């Protein structure tokens, strides 16, 4: 019997869902990272309290989801028949918070059935369905060295990184952090972002590890510094160093399936597409709170 369980307590959620998430740490890496962020009280980049769900079938966890406003509802793979119950639980939570998710993100089939179930309950409509490729490192391949050198980001880099996080979000049409400065500060002090220096800062690469998997991103180079190979080399060096640390044996990243430039850059370094996820956005009015639902 399919059941949907809900909580705002990260430890209750982790106790139930973490083994399921760790069983596929590449595809479920962002869900694992959210647990880390909330445990570390890194909620300054959220505009509302985190919400969590897990799905069981005869006491076996078969799916999980989390929502950290202003970002979309994030789902794992899950049984199709669980989608209506999860959507209803998410609607109820949105009503309680006076907010609503701007869309749904996750493995293609599961995210789509949850988004469809959401629109059947609410008056939201799907405005965009964008395919995102899950890329997993095969064999790391060294790429050409551009002018300059890599270094870890420093506290005095925070204003630049914060500005780039906002510009990057706008470029990819993704929800910006509620507080980009707080997010940049957390990344810098957590040792989660490196920069490339060619006289000035010309590129940044963020990264996190969860359950033995390095996830690369965000990666951003301002337009005036593109086409020099900075992002390609910085991604290569970040990956190479991470794989030398104990406990990290895999690396992955997400790319827009319709962006041939970014896909080419990462494939040159050895990343290979291993699955499709989607970012589903509801129409712009979905930013309004849900006041009631049938």
Question: Your description of this structure?
Answer:
The protein has 294 residues and is of the alpha+beta class. The protein has two domains: 2-132 and 278-287, Aminopeptidase; 149-269, 3-Layer(aba) Sandwich (Aminopeptidase). It contains eight helices and twelve strands. A hairpin with a 5-residue loop joins strand 3 (60-67) and strand 4. The longest helix is centred in the first third of the chain and has 15 residues, at 83-97. The chain is globular and about 55 Å long. The two termini are 24 Å apart. The mean pLDDT is 94.
Structural key phrases:
single chain, 34% helix, 12 strands, 30% strand, 294 residues, 2 domains, Aminopeptidase
Task: Summarize the topology.
Layout: E1 2-7, H1 10-22, H2 29-39, E2 51-57, E3 60-67, E4 73-75, H3 83-97, E5 103-107, H4 108-121, E6 126-137, E7 149-152, H5 158-171, H6 180-189, E8 193-198, E9 200-210, E10 213-220, H7 230-243, E11 250-256, H8 260-268, E12 271-282
Parallel strand pairs: 4-5, 10-11
Antiparallel strand pairs: 1-2, 2-3, 3-4, 5-12, 6-11, 6-12, 7-8, 8-9, 9-10
Helix pairs in contact: 1-2, 3-4, 5-6
């Amino acid at each position: 019997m399919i059941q949907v369980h809900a909580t705002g307590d990260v430890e209750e959620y982790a106790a139930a869902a973490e083994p399921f998430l760790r069983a596929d740490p590449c595809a479920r890496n962002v869900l694992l990272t959210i647990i880390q962020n909330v445990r570390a009280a890194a909620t300054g980049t959220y505009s509302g309290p985190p919400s969590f769900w897990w799905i069981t079938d005869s006491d076996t966890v078969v799916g999980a989801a989390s929502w950290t406003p202003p970002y979309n509802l994030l789902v794992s793979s899950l049984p199709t028949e669980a989608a209506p119950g999860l959507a209803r639980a998410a609607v109820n939570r949105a009503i309680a918070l006076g907010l609503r998710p701007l869309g749904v993100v996750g493995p293609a089939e599961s995210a789509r059935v949850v988004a469809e179930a959401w629109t059947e309950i609410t008056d939201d409509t799907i405005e965009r369905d964008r395919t995102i490729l899950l890329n997993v490192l095969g064999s790391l391949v060294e790429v050409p060295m551009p002018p300059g050198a890599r270094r870890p980001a420093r506290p005095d880099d925070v204003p630049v990184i914060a500005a780039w996080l906002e510009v990057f979000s706008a470029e990819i049409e993704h929800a910006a952090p509620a507080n980009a400065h707080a997010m940049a500060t957390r990344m810098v002090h957590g040792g989660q972002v490196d920069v490339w220096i060619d006289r000035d800062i010309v590129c940044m690469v963020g990264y996190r590890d969860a359950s033995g998997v390095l996830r690369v991103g965000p990666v951003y180079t301002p337009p005036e510094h593109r086409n020099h190979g900075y992002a390609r080399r910085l991604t290569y060096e970040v990956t190479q160093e991470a794989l030398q640390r104990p406990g990290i044996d895999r690396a992955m990243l997400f790319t827009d399936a319709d962006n041939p430039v970014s896909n080419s850059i990462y494939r040159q370094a050895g990343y290979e597409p291993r699955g499709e996820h989607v970012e589903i956005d509801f129409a712009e009015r979905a930013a309004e709170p849900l006041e009631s639902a049938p």
